[in-house]
Amino acid sequence: MKMLTTESCPGWYCGRQILDSGELSECGSCPRAYRRNDSYICVPCTDSPTFYDWLYLGFMVVFLLILHWFFIDLVSMRRRSLTDWYTLLHNPDPNYEETIHCTQEAVYPLYSIIFLFYTMNLLCMFCFRTWVCRKVMPGPGKMSIYAAMYYLPILAVSHALIGGLLYYAFPYLIVVMSVISCAVHFAFSINQTVFSLIMTSLTSPRNIIILMGHWCLHFYGIISITEFTDPLFHSLLILLVPLPTLFYIFTARFTNPKKFDKS
User: Fold this and answer.
1) How many whole angstroms separate alpha carbon 213 and alpha carbon 143?
2) Is the dihedral angle over the CA atoms 28, 33, 34, 35 positive or is it negative?
3) Which of 31, 65, 141, 171 could be disulfide-bonded to 137 (CB atoms 3.0-4.6 Å)?
4) Residue 8: partners with Cβ closer than 8 Å, 6 or more residues away
């Protein structure tokens, strides 16, 4: 094998590249991801980033987020009644003549910021989620995108029409939905014995994640209802989070249709 003899290059970082002909180029900058070696030849970088290097990259990401913390203040207008959500229906017409259009967002930003979130969600879904689903899970991921194309417009229309009602009712909806969904989840179990329900809930990773999701929803609903105005008492209500799960597990055996007298 022919050995390449090189002359030194000035400076600390100037090197020579190996051309297709096997000759060396003049001294200059090395290509990206290359650096000169002790023989003044540009060689590719093959080392792995050290732990400190990864910490530096993490610092740069976190530092950018910290800079945005100076601009996270959100101002709002406190609502006074349900009509604040529907100013379109309350344009005055003095003396039943010309209507004065005073429609505005009286509950700023609770109305517009939801539409902004839905729009950003839709854009991210089309720009990034489609690519991720195609690479990671082409089957189930495709169906989730199709579902989102239906429920995002439905949610937007629902917010436009009944946003005010949802504002006052969402804490109770969360609690009711979490209880019902928890019961539905356990109802799909073939074996409805206490031992089986407990074991499947504690040993199956899928069931653990679903159960934790229900508990988080129930916890969120309790916080939304109480707003922690009485921290000591309302903290004790957190103990009620597992109650729907325990109630179903220990009472499911009493609902077995085979135990009822057909006569």
Assistant:
1) 22
2) positive
3) 141
4) 40
At 162-193, the pLDDT tens digits run: 999 999 999 999 999 999 999 999 998 888 89
pTM: 0.71
Residue-wise pLDDT for 54-78, tens only, equals 999 999 999 888 888 777 788 898 8
CA dihedral over 148, 154, 156, 158, signed as positive or negative = negative
223-232 per-position pLDDT tens digit: 999 998 999 9
| Structure tokens belonging to residue 1 | 């094998």
Cβ neighbourhood burial of 92 (10 Å; 0-12, 13-18, 19+): exposed
Please give the Cα distance from 240 to 207 (Å, whole number): 20
Helix (H, G, I), strand (E, B) or coil at 118: helix
CA distances from 236 to 188, 214, 223, 229, 239 (A): 31, 19, 11, 13, 6
Give the single-character DSSP code of 100: P
**How far apart (Å, rounded) are the C-alpha atoms in residues 250 and 260?**
18
Please count the residues of the chain: 263
Give the per-residue pLDDT at 2. Answer: 47
Calculate mean pLDDT across residues 38-52: 92
Q: What is the 3-state secondary structure (H, E, C) of 187-252?
A: HCCCCCCHHHHHHHHHHCHHHHHHHHHHHHHHHHHHHHHHCCCCHHHHHHHHHHCCHHHHHHHHHH
Q: How far apart are CA 148 and CA 129, in angstroms?
A: 11
